[in-house]
Specification:
The chain has about 90 residues and is α+β, with helices and mostly antiparallel strands. The chain is about 15% helix and about 15% strand.
């Protein structure tokens, strides 16, 4: 696994693929419906993830030569300081 906090990106092996993602600098806060458990959002790869892709290319230049197998965009349960909520 690779996590680069300066570029706000991460990479990790997932089966036979490499999963890449990014941490939003200015996240959109969202209030789910009361019965929400998990779901995904539609995502325009370049419009919504383009800046993260550029940062991935800075960290691992060979990624510019790779294709995209699939995309996943869903709500995350991170706290602002990345620490767990316990209690």
């Amino acid at each position: 696994n690779i996590r680069d906090h300066d570029l706000s990106v991460y990479l990790k092996l997932q089966g036979d693929s490499l999963a890449i993602g990014g941490y939003e600098v200015d996240p959109v806060f969202w209030t789910p419906e009361p019965d929400f458990a998990f779901g995904l959002f539609e995502m325009d790869l370049m419009e919504e993830f383009g800046a993260h892709l550029e940062n991935h290319f800075k960290r691992v230049p060979v990624l510019e030569e790779c294709g995209v197998k699939s995309t996943v965009c869903g709500p995350e349960s991170f706290t602002p300081d990345h620490k767990p909520i316990i209690g």
